[in-house]
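call fold(seq) -> tokens
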Amino acid sequence: MVDAKGEEALASDERSPVARWRDRVRGRAALISFIAIEVGAYPLLLFFGRHTWFTQDDWDFLSARTAGDLGDWFRGHFQHMVTLPILVYRLLWRLFGIRTYVPYLSLVILTHLAVAALVRALARRAGVRPWLATVIAGGFVLFGAGGENILVAFQITFGAALMFGLLQLLLADHDGPMDRRDWLALLAGFAGLLCSGVAIAMTVVVGLTVLLRRGWSGWRVAVFQTAPIGVAYLIWTVAAPKGQIVTNLRSHSLGQMIKFVWVGIQAAFGGMGQLPGVGILLVVLLVVGLAVAFRSRGEGRPLFADGRAAPVALMVGALLFMFMTATARAGQGGLLVLLKTAGPDRARESRYIYLIGAMCLPAIGLAAEVLIRRRKLFAVPVVALLLVGLPANVNQLSDYSPRYATPPRTRYVILSLGRLPLARQLRNMHVPYPDNRLSVEGLTMNWLIASVGRIPDPGPIPPGVGAGEVLEFLVQSSIPSPGLRCVPLTKPLLYVIGRGRTFTVERGSAYVKNVPIGAAGASSPKRAFRPDTYRALVGPLRLRFLPLDRGVEVCV
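ret:
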């Protein structure tokens, strides 16, 4: 009995040399076109990402870890092992600091382009014709709905895990005995595990692919590709230092998890189609095409014997990844119930759409190929269906970084705060950065001060601006101190507050201005201080208190 590849080989041998040459030229032209798309996309994506800068998660790798601490290598980041991205960040920090975002952005873009190339390779392995594979993977290069994994440097954690997982899949998906490819595949799987938890789903995909292709006789190869990675992950789970955990995001019910998965699938296919109804048509294409492929088994063309196992296993892996994510991200505890994008709707986030899209595209390509082979007239509507969402995706990608960019105010404060003269008093002291969203990632005042030089200079800091930053960020809430004397604030009062000293605002709110000693005309804008006790982290500070409410008192 001749399998599908054998039939194609025989058919190829029976064709004229001119026909074989024409197919070879078409295949090379399609490949060259895809390479041109990738090469052209790199500077375009850099341009699209010109507004992005270091975000909340980046500070964990930049400020809270060092390459010389083995515990920092393996401490989890929200339940992900991220060893390789940490080491890459530490290297880029040594070479470039944060003077430029381009090296960090370039790395995530190159990883994305590698993922697109592997998607095309898997589609070709499944029998998708060269030009159709180029259309599918080339469209994914500009997949704006998944822009977070393309234009946000920290998402190298997800992108690299997917890249190594697809590489492991491509290497392990073969017939015959185990050979060097299997060892390289296992190495790629371990590299993926060191990038993020996406690797767990990808490892299952590889094992399932081996079993589907080889049958139960391939169980030894499947175990070889999955068991060592699974054991390593369990050891890490038990023995590694614990990192950040967001307990209020955990799912509270199976219904939440199922809805999370369903919302993610809807968002991914909607993102691929962009226009109303196109996502549904893509699902119909996928289901009908795979059903036709399944029926072809009765015509002597086994479904999983010619590279078709991988696309099917990848779809299963996409569902598995979303279920795994749902356990930790589908919850809506605490004040999150007030957010429209919390709970299961969090599955609409760009990074999940990207992963689902990448893992479903080889199967979509296979389904399209099967239908086109049955009826050549299907070629035009099928290709149109695959490309109709491309303009909107390009537009979404071009507009992604301005919406995701670090606010200019936040960026300026990070660059300037460590350069304030009074801030130097905090050197060698572990004082968290005064924004909880960043301090929870490990950003500290000490790091900002010590990193001056590797942090770009924002330019001269006007005295009034510097005085305002001191008042806003270096005067923080504290516990009350005993022995303070309270006076009614009926008129402006001027007090000098020493470093580490506290003051309390009672019975109402007060305006406070920082009037630096020896800097005439350089006072800060006034800020409202609500009833509370405040500590000056640096000093001495000359503060002017002005009444905001009647009956307010100041205790110093």
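The CA atoms of residues 62 and 93 lie 7 Å apart.
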